[in-house]
Amino acid sequence: MTESTRQTKTIHEYLAENPDVNVSETHAKLWAILTDLRERVQKRFPMEPQPASEGLDYWQTESGDYEGSMFTWTGPQTPHVANSWIGNRKASILDMNFQCWLGPQIDVPHLVFVFGTIPQMFYYSELVPRRDLMVDLDYLHKYYDEDNADYLELRGNTDLTWSVSHGTYMRAFLSPSAHSYTMDRTDEHIELLRDHVNRRFNRWMSWVDNATPVPAEEQRALEDRDHLIRTYGYTQDPMNAISKRFLGEERTEQLLAVRYGKAQIDATRAARG
User: Which residues sit opposite 75 in a β-bridge?
Assistant: First the structure.
């Protein structure tokens, strides 16, 4: 298989080759990394659990062939924080997710980390821009230049294979600092990702701590844009088809609404009038 073929290989194809691998140990190690990030965010920002995720701390289908956990929070500076996983730890497929979406008081990029097993390890990370990077060069240089060395370091690692989404929206979502890779499930790769994740997280926290306030008259437009990107970033993902196969369309849509914080978006819009 050529390198270009590996890059465009779908998750469905990976799973078809190895559908019944127990990935519980990998799940525990990767979930611990995301849990640590979530705990650090909770210490930094005041947040309350969102009612929409109540009862989802652990769930599974009647057959036991699909399971997951979901926690979401809201705070004055962080309207939506989500920490979730979904899949089957004994049958190759897992998606583990941590996202922190910031309020419009500042325009620091939002933060996304995703780990997965297919059963190879999958890693996706994004600094979601709040401005148009093609025309706002100050914003581009302020945030994405600072991240550039770490980006190139990981992008140049020949152990990692770039993973191309087959969804056009998901490719449009990518910033110059996006990571999307598959790799072998090894402790060495887990530690590589742990180091990279923590460096990115620490840099992001320093941006938040030193952020310049957004003028009040610009905040509504920024918030509206955030809401759209948050919604589409989940609902346009072609990998939702896997959940629909196990859970059905209605249950999948219900869980997606919690993951992107639909109730919080609706409540914010209603309060604004």
Answer: none
